[in-house]
Amino acid sequence: MNAxxxxxxKYGMRAVGPFAFTLKNIVPVGLKVAINFYVLSGMACxxxxxxxxxxxLSRVDVLCLSPFECGVHSNCHSLKGPFW
Length: 84
Prior knowledge:
Low-confidence stretches: none
Oligomer: single chain
Strand content: under 5%
Shape: elongated
Radius of gyration: 19 Å
Largest sheet: none
Structural class: mainly alpha
Number of helices: 3
């Protein structure tokens, strides 16, 4: 989901185009970014991924989520619950 967010934001920022980082550009460029569908979609993907991550963290020990650590810790049980 984060990869999709990055692709959306990249596509949206290509539509906005290059700009100079100056004080006079804050409002016009900010408005272009704020109303760009792809940038907003990317931000929505990030927000949704945060919600999903919070749900996962509430159900599983964080040590069990690392692909390198899962087989090492004996307290990592199989994923159980309504979303697994």
